[in-house]
Amino acid sequence: MPTPSMEDYLERIYILIEEKGYARVSDIADALQVHPSSVTKMVQKLDLNEYLIYEKYRGLVLTAKGKKIGKRLVYRHELLEDFMRVIGVDEKNIYGDVEGIEHHLSWDAIDRIGDLVQYFEEKSKRVDDLRSIEKQNNEIK
C-alpha cells in the first residue's frame, strides 16, 4: 500500500494524465507546490514500487496498478468533497478538510460514506431535513 505522500503524488499524476494526456515533473511540482527534485525522488520511489514507469528526461507512465490506485484516490477525494457538501461544510473549508482526513479513513469507511452520500442524493428531502436541524442548532447557539 502506498504511503499518504505517495497517494498524493499518484492522485495528482492520475489527474494530470487524465486532463493533459501526460504528467511532467514540472507539472507535478507546480500542482503539489513542491520542488522538482522532491518530485523526482518520489517518482523514482513510485517506479520502484511499480506504480509507474519513469525514464529520466522522457517522462512517466502509470502502470495498470498505478492507474487503478490513482483512479480510486480521485474517487475518494471527490466522494469526501461531496460528503462535506451534503453535511453543510462551508465550501471554502472543504478542500482543506478533505486533505486532512482522506488518508486516515479505511476503505470500508469510504464505502459507507459513499452509501450515505448516495442516500442523500436519492432522498433530497433528507438534505433539507439536515439543513433544518443545522439551522435550529445555530439559532440555539
UniProtKB/TrEMBL annotation:
| The family this protein is said to belong to | Belongs to the DtxR/MntR family.
Q: Which residues bind Mn(2+) 1?
A: D8, E99, E102, H103
Give the species this sequence originates from. Answer: Salipaludibacillus neizhouensis
| Role noted for this protein | Central regulator of manganese homeostasis.
Subunit (UniProt)? Homodimer.
Enumerate the PROSITE patterns for this protein: HTH_DTXR (PS50944)
This chain belongs to the protein called: HTH-type transcriptional regulator MntR
Q: Which gene encodes it?
A: mntR
Any single GO CC term annotated in Swiss-Prot or TrEMBL for this entry: cytoplasm
UniProt key word Cytoplasm: yes
Q: Which domain of life is it from?
A: Bacteria
| Compartment(s) of residence | Cytoplasm
User: How is it regulated at the activity level?
Assistant: DNA binding is strongly activated by Mn(2+).
Q: Kindly list the positions annotated as binding Mn(2+) 2.
A: E11, H77, E99, E102
Instruction: Give yes or no: UniProt keyword Membrane.
Output: no
